Amino acid sequence: MKKIDIVHYHLKPGGVTKIIQSQIESLHRTGDYDIRLFCAECPDQEEYASKGVELVCDEAFDYADFNENDKATIEQKMEKTRNVAEKYFSADRIIHFHNLNLGKNPYWTLAVFELAEKGINVVNHVHDFAEDRKDNQTFLQRIIQDHFEKNLKTVMYPDFSNYHIAALSRHDYERIKQHHFSEKQIHYLPNPVDMDEVIEAAGEDTRDAVYHDLGLDAKKSLVTYPVRGIRRKNIGEFILLAHLFADLANFVMTLPPQNPVEKKSYDKWKAFCEEKQIPVTFEAGQKTDFVNLITSSDFCITTSVREGFGMVFLEPWMMSTPVIGRNLKNITKDLIKEGIEFPGLYNFIRVPYKGDLKDFAEIHFDQQKQIISKIIEDKMMANIIFVSNSHLKRMFQPVRQNIMSNNQAIIKEKFSIKSYAERLRKLYSSFAG
């Protein structure tokens, strides 16, 4: 099967778009694939045209309205979605739909199920789960189960030999399997690092330029959080560490959120840092070259509490920068199993909270601010944190070169575009068998 229809709601910059770009590159490397790409919005259409991909932008693929309740309107939207599905998709091709079940558009969740029911080949590429997002799951249930009277679980995880699911991690793989979905139809498809070769650590001149661009203290090391500052990235914990280790390192975060709701929370953290004079540099990725920033960093850090795949645990190593921070076992378990080492990760940061010690990540961000404020005012609290979290003192120890080299070799072998291309080839070949 070499005719592939890749579908996502949009191609705006972000994690899923990046994976789609890697997917296209992988298919081009693997063989002569006929690729069509469907979305509602694509800011850079020329990029895909230059890769020989037929791009179809149709508003029918956009996010649906969470608040839609009018029964006649729901019927109209479903009819329109079915008509668009019939127009574009056929039995001689594979539909590779990213985040089909996320609850961003339940009409497509149902329409693609109906196509699969008719024998059309489907790959549902799961980056995130609606089950983790109450509003999304409720939306799916209201449209598919309540209005159209279909069993939601059957629609999301149908028992068809021509309906396959791609999982980013073994954890997600096992989670999907619990729905009694056939193991023959689940595929482990970890995201690729889109670097074929290691990028060496920055030289002194490049590092000096980055420090100048960001106005950093040249006497301190550099710790970079290479993310958009959305809530699940646990910004408060990053800021806590920035305060605790302010004498040791410059702490920078690369990008602001694009979502207005997320930006509101992010701006509050920025204002908090300014008010409390916590030396964090925000939007560093907009002030200096990104690759130069990462290769100039002594460490890349992550304090995230939830990731679909967690590229931050891999990419920095390929730019000669060790990864430290909060361990997400459902993510790192797969990577450690492949042989990658993470000497600078921790499982918790216990802080005084309501007369007890509690993991900082489990505390609401409003209370996180109160805790950081108290730590600033009372140095004894900082001492309590270091005594209760001995691992923090080891976090910034230099990583041995043999660990760096070993991690880079494993990433090149197991998580490269080349290995991703082979996984995709096997996935698509399974339809022919």
SSE map:
Layout: E1 3-7, H1 15-30, E2 34-39, H2 45-49, E3 54-57, H3 71-88, E4 94-98, H4 106-117, E5 121-126, H5 134-147, H6 152-156, E6 163-167, H7 170-177, E7 186-188, H8 204-214, E8 221-228, H9 235-244, E9 249-255, H10 260-276, E10 280-281, H11 290-296, E11 299-302, H12 315-318, E12 323-326, H13 329-337, E13 344-346, E14 350-353, E15 356-359, H14 365-377, H15 379-388, H16 391-394, H17 401-414, H18 417-432
Parallel strand pairs: 1-2, 1-4, 2-3, 4-5, 5-6, 6-7, 8-9, 8-11, 9-10, 11-12, 12-13
Antiparallel strand pairs: 14-15
Helix pairs in contact: 1-18, 3-4, 4-5, 9-14, 14-15
Proportion of residues in helical segments: 40-55%
Main β-sheet description: 7 strands, parallel
How much of the sequence lies in strands comes to 15-25%
Q: How many domains in all?
A: 2
So, CATH architecture of the largest domain? 3-Layer(aba) Sandwich
Q: What is the mean predicted local confidence, pLDDT?
A: 94
How far do the termini sit from each other? 10 Å
SSE class:
alpha/beta
Question: Whole-number radius of gyration?
Answer: 23 Å
Taking strands numbered 1, 2, ... along the chain, how are they ordered across the largest sheet? 3-2-1-4-5-6-7
How many helices? The count is: 18
CATH class assignment of the largest domain: Alpha Beta
CATH topology of the largest domain: Rossmann fold
**What is the overall silhouette?**
globular
Poorly predicted segments = none
The CATH homologous superfamily of the largest domain: Glycogen Phosphorylase B
Question: What's the total number of strands?
Answer: 15
Q: So what's the oligomer here?
A: single chain
